[in-house]
Design goal:
This protein is α+β, with helices and mostly antiparallel strands. It has a domain of 92 residues: Mlu1-box Binding Protein, DNA-binding Domain (Roll), CATH 3.10.260.10. It is globular, with a radius of gyration of 14 Å. The two termini are 24 Å apart.
Length: 132
C-alpha cells in the first residue's frame, strides 16, 4: 500500500512499494452500500467504476478486470479460482460481481498495468483523496 503523505501524489516522484508513481489518475467518490452496511470508495477508469469496500477493503474484481478490456471468458476464468472471493448477484449494478481481496486486486492491477489508472484506489487511506 502507498504510505505517502496526503498531497504527496502532487510531487510526481513519489512511488509506492511496488515502484508505481503515485499521481492522480481517477476521480475518487464514495457510495453507501446499504445492503452490506458499508461505505465503498469508487474510482472511474476507462468507462468502469471500480469499488473498494471501506469495512474489509475487498475490491470488485469483475469491474477491475473490465478496465483491462479482457474478454468475459478470460475474466471469469481468473475470478472463478480466486481464494476468498465473494460473489454479489443482487443490488446496484456497479456493486455486482466477484469481490476479491485487496492484495490480490493489487497484484492483478499491477500484472495488467492498470494500477496507475485506478489511483487512488490502492492507497492506505483513500478518504484523504475524496473530492468535496
Amino acid at each position: 500500500m502507498f504510505h505517502g503523505h496526503p498531497g504527496s501524489h502532487l510531487q510526481g516522484s513519489s512511488t509506492d512499494p511496488y515502484g508505481h508513481s503515485a499521481y492522480h489518475k481517477g476521480k475518487l467518490s464514495t457510495t453507501l452500500w446499504e445492503d452490506e452496511g458499508t461505505l465503498c470508495y469508487q474510482v472511474d477508469a476507462r468507462g468502469y467504476s471500480v469499488a473498494r469496500r471501506q469495512d474489509n477493503n475487498m475490491i470488485n474484481g469483475t469491474k477491475l478486470l473490465n478496465v483491462v478490456g479482457m474478454s468475459r471468458g478470460k475474466r471469469d476464468g481468473i475470478l472463478k479460482n480466486e481464494k476468498g472471493r465473494v460473489v454479489v448477484k443482487v443490488g446496484a449494478m456497479h456493486l455486482k460481481g466477484v469481490w476479491i481481496t485487496f492484495t490480490r486486486a493489487q497484484q492483478l492491477a499491477t500484472q495488467y498495468k492498470i494500477y496507475e489508472a485506478l489511483y487512488p484506489l490502492f492507497v492506505e487511506d483513500p478518504s484523504v483523496h475524496i473530492t468535496p
